[in-house]
Structure formats: C-alpha cells, structure tokens
C-alpha cells in the first residue's frame, strides 16, 4: 500500500510539473495575451452580425418562429450581463432586413464576422511551428468559409434544440420543463462549440493537421469554455458604474477574452501530445489497432 501511494504521488507530481509549460504559455507569454485580446475584440465585432444572420434565416427565410425564439433565448442565457436590450436590438434589426436584398446583406455581414480568423490563424500557426501565415486574401477566403460552416452548424444545433423544446412543451410539470430546457440549450450549444473548435483546429492552421490529434482538444475546449462561462456569469461584477453605456460590450469582451485562453490553451495541449499523452488517446488507439507487420 505504501509503495502504491508513493508511485501515485510521483505520478501526480510529474503531471503537475508537466503543466508548467502550459502555465508559461498562457500566463507568462505576452504574445498569448495579445492574441487573446485581439480575438476577443474580433469576437465582439462578429457576435452581433453572426446572430443576426441566423435569426434572419429562421425568421425571414424558413419562417420558423419557434426556432427564432429559441435562438433569442439562447443568446439571453449565454450573454454575461443584461441581455434584454441586445435581444431587442437583434429583433429590430431582423425586421429591418426584411426579405428584399437579404442574401447580399447576409453575405456582407458574414464577411465582416470573418475578421476573427486573422489573429486566430496567427496564434495557431505559432503553436504548430508554421513559419509563414497565409496571405491576407487567402486568410479571408478560409475565414469566410469557416464562418459559413460554423453558422450552418449553429443553425443545425439550434434546429435540434427547437425540436426538443417543442417536445418538452408537452410535459406537464413546469419544473421538469425548466430543467430539460436548460439541459437542452447547454448540451446543444456545447456540441456546437466542440465541432466549431474542431473545424478551426483542423482547417485554420497553414499546415496539415491530424484530426485525431486535435479532436480530443476540441472536446476539452468545448467543455472548459462552458465552465468558464458559467463561472464568469456568476462572479462578474456590475460594470455599469465604471463603464457606463459600454458595460454590456465590456462584459462580453472580458468573457470572450477568458474563453480564448481556453481555445489557445487546448490547442497548445494538442501540439504537445508527447508531454501530455492523455491528449493523444485517439492516436494511440489507432496505433494499437493497426496490425503488426511481419518481420523479414
């Protein structure tokens, strides 16, 4: 028993020591903070347009009012501070877009939302030791494609959420309804975040990246981002006395800033599978399943 405890302690100490490079990358490296701040600012600029496009698809193209309402409720539940004015502004903007010239408007909106991929590609390229970033125009082509992909994924998971909400509405007890709706929103949005992050890890770096290497990191990023959001919503102070009319934007900017640390931190783990072997379990499983070649 004593030998077992000693082995366990040595293993735990080694794992804690292995976390020092991650701590150095996330906390002590100035470049990481610069990337995260740039990503948070780009996310702030792209959040409203991306929500606007999805709401316009549900309201003006599909005519699916229940899904439209679910998306507004999701935005309210995920926004870190008072979301009433935001939901009202989104609703008013969708009504202003109408049906005329909507496709062209949405394309321009999506192109503006693609700006988040400029600092994100640079950050991922540094982690994968890529010496040269894509040209700006190519970054925007890839970024626009990924924006469309993420929006399509979001529309899919929001549609699933709306269908499940319609089923839950037939239940009798309000408490059961509330709990199930809460779980539906959290589960569908976490799944969307996992798949979106996986697409970014896989396609955004200017090099070939193995899916098996980054998928575990994407799962970890999706779960950790949800935990960070929940903690932030409960501990974030009231910014109105110090930020005035900018309090909503500042609260979102800080949330995005913290969550980008999660995205880059998990990407760092994916690039260091030798140091963190538990991140490469899919790669190990593949190697173990491969038949051994005969000798001679």
Polypeptide structure, described:
The protein has 296 residues and is mostly helical. The chain has one domain (29-91, 109-282). It contains 13 helices and no strands. The chain has helices spanning 2-18, 20-28, 30-61, 65-78, 84-97, 102-113, 117-127, 136-168, 174-203, 211-235, 240-243, 247-270, 281-289. Helix 4 packs antiparallel against helix 5. The longest helix has 33 residues, at 136-168. The termini are far apart. Mean pLDDT is 81; it is low at 290-296.
- Give a short account of the largest sheet: none
Cα-atom Rg, whole angstroms? 22 Å
Rounded to the nearest angstrom, the distance between the terminal CA atoms is: 45 Å
Percentage of residues in helical conformation: over 70%
Provide the residue-averaged pLDDT.
81
By secondary-structure content and strand pairing, the structural class works out as: mainly alpha
**Count of discrete domains:** 1
Overall 3D form: globular
Query: Helical segment tally?
Result: 13
Low-confidence segments, given as residue ranges, are: 290-296
Order of helices and strands: HHHHHHHHHHHHH
Number of strands: 0
């Amino acid at each position: 028993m004593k030998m077992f405890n000693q082995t366990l302690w040595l293993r735990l100490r080694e794992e804690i020591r292995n976390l020092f490079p991650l701590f150095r990358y996330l906390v002590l490296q100035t470049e990481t903070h610069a990337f995260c701040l740039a990503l948070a600012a780009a996310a702030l600029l792209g959040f409203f347009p991306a929500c606007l496009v999805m709401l316009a698809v549900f309201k003006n193209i599909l005519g699916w009012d229940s899904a439209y309402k679910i998306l507004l409720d999701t935005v309210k539940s995920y926004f870190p501070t008072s979301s009433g004015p935001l939901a009202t502004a989104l609703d008013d903007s969708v009504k202003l877009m109408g049906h005329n010239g909507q496709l062209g408007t949405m394309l321009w909106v999506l192109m503006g939302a693609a700006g988040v991929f400029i600092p994100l590609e640079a950050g991922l390229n540094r982690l994968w030791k890529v010496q040269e970033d894509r040209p700006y125009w190519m970054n925007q082509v890839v970024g626009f494609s990924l924006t469309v992909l993420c929006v399509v994924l979001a529309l899919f998971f929001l549609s699933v959420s709306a269908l499940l909400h319609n089923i839950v509405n037939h239940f009798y007890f309000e408490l059961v309804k509330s709990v199930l709706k809460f779980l539906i929103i959290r589960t569908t949005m976490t799944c969307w975040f996992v798949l979106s992050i996986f697409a970014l890890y896989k396609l955004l770096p200017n090099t070939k990246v193995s899916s098996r290497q980054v998928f575990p990191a994407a799962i970890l990023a999706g779960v950790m981002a949800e935990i960070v959001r929940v903690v932030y919503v409960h501990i974030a102070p009231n910014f109105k006395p110090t930020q005035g009319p900018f309090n909503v934007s500042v609260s979102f900017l800080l949330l995005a800033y913290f969550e980008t640390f999660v995205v880059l931190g998990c990407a760092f783990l994916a690039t260091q599978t030798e140091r963190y072997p538990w991140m490469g379990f899919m790669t190990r499983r593949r190697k173990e399943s491969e038949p051994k070649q005969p000798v001679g």
